[in-house]
Each structure stands twice: as C-alpha cells, then as structure tokens.
Design a protein that fits this description.
alpha+beta; three-stranded antiparallel sheet; 4 helices; binds 2-amino-4-trifluoromethylsulfanyl-butyric acid; binds cobalt (II) ion
C-alpha cells in the first residue's frame, strides 16, 4: 500500500513557498537560454540563484549521486540530462527541470525552452506536451483517481500522434523529493487510488514524437528516446483541494513560448 502524506495547512503554506521559488528559477533562466551557452553554464546560473538569491537548496545535487543542481534535457533526451559542456544551438529544444528545498519542503517544476526559432514539429510537440500536462492537472480534485489523471494525459498525447513514456512518472512530493504515490501519465479511468485534499503531487509527462521506448546512457542518468526522435516534458507541483486543485509552481511565464 502506498504511504501518502496529507499536508497540514502550515505544510501547505511551505509547499506554496517552495513551489513559487522553483518557478522563479525557471522564469530567471529563460533569458540565458540562447545559442552558444553550455548546459553547465545554465546549471551554474541556476545554482547561484537558488543558493544565493533564494537561500534555498537545489534538490538534485547529490540526490542518489546526481552531480548537478538542475537537469537539462536537449532534443532526444527524455529526462535527467546532466549539465555539461554541450553547447546549445539554434533549433534545439531543452527541458530545464528545477527542484528546490525551502524550509524543508520541495517544489519541483520544469519547462521547455527554444533555442532560436524551433521547427514546426518541435513547437507542436512542445505545445501538445504542455496541453497534456494541463489536461491531466484539470482532472485533479478530491475523488479523482490516478487512472483518470493518467488517462487524460495519455489520450491527448496519443490523439495528437505522439507516445507517452512509461518508465518515469510523477510523484508525491513534500518533505521528500519523491514520495508516494506514483503518478503515471497513462492509465484507465476509475482505476488506482483516489486523490484526497492535502495531497501534493507532480504531473510531469514525457511525450515522444516517435515511439515510447527509452534507454539510459552509460552515465546511468541521461535517458534518451530509443528511436532518436524528439521528446518533450513539462512539470508542475499541484495541491489537491476539495473542489479542485492549486498549481503551486505557476508564474506569469509558465506557458510555452
Ligand atoms: N526533477 C526530477 C523529477 O521531476 C527528478 C530529477 S532526479 C535527479 O522528479 F537526480 F536527476 F535530479
Ligand atoms: Co518531479
Ligand atoms: Co522535476
């Protein structure tokens, strides 16, 4: 049985703060994503901002041995890309995934960024992935099952001709980075556990332009599409409420460019 924490109102207030700070990192980094920048430079800028400006902790750093403070996943990289010497070039699409710890609580969010002008295909994949995340989030209220949520995400992605990655999923979040339950981005309506007010979960679908299969590189982190096609991902941290939900990682620029 999953062990799902229900947050108290004081804990929810801390989750709101952590979520807002995580979103502010993504707002800040947008201006730095351009041709010629390395993913390690993006990592350094985010790290300094999180530690120096926000007085927060970058949760990925040293998490299960992850060596950097953010994940940067470019083009065919599905998730968990490690910032490094790779230089971004015009036409690349990159997911930046930020998780901060503030006052012992986690906020986890990611967005897609375009380097220069994206191809029509890349822009459509990015948009459909964003829509899939939001359609999933819109199902969230007391009594929604995780199957209802996953099904809604999957239906939109697949109706658009894309596939949904199975090996990685959303998660409960709070004092721990990854808590129960697993939040799958596919499923059958009416199956799985019911959401209860006070749960905080992430919705973070990875949508592939080609087939759903992935493989992990020799660095034991970087996940790529098996067929080499593009992949996109967006992520919000969301609070379940009686009548609906509250997205904790929203900002003025949390939509596709
Ligand atoms: N931020 C990712 C998530 O959404 C997890 C990254 S784990 C790391 O769950 F170790 F790669 F940072
Ligand atoms: Co997450
Ligand atoms: Co994340």
């Amino acid at each position: 049985m999953p062990n799902i924490s229900i947050k108290t109102s004081a804990e929810i207030e801390k989750m709101r703060v952590a979520g807002r700070l995580a979103a502010s990192v993504l707002d800040m980094i947008g201006d730095h994503v351009h041709a010629g920048v390395t993913t390690d430079e993006l990592n350094t800028i985010c790290h300094e901002f999180i530690v120096g400006k926000l007085d927060a902790i970058p949760a990925p750093l040293n998490y299960r041995g992850f060596p950097k403070s953010i994940c940067t996943s470019v083009n065919n990289v599905v998730c968990h890309g490690i910032p490094g010497p790779r230089t971004l070039k015009k036409g690349d699409i990159v997911n930046i995934d930020v998780t901060v710890i503030k006052d012992e609580f986690h906020g986890d969010t990611s967005r897609m960024y375009f380097v220069g002008k994206p191809s029509i295909k890349a822009a459509r994949l990015t948009r459909v992935c964003y829509e899939s995340m939001m359609i999933g989030i819109e199902t969230i209220k007391a009594g929604t099952t995780l199957g209802d949520l996953g099904h809604a995400v999957q239906k939109h992605a697949e109706a658009s001709g894309y596939s949904v990655v199975r090996e990685f999923c959303g998660h409960g979040i709070g004092r721990n980075f990854h808590e129960d339950p697993h939040v799958l981005h596919y499923g059958k309506p009416g199956t799985g556990i019911e959401l209860v007010p006070g749960m905080t979960i992430t919705v973070e679908p990875m949508v592939n332009a080609g087939k759903k299969e992935t493989r992990t590189l020799a660095d034991n982190w970087t996940v790529v599409t098996k067929d080499g096609c593009l992949s996109a991902q967006w992520e919000h941290t969301v609070l379940v409420t009686q009548s609906g939900h509250e997205i904790l990682t929203l900002s003025n620029s949390s939509e596709p460019a």
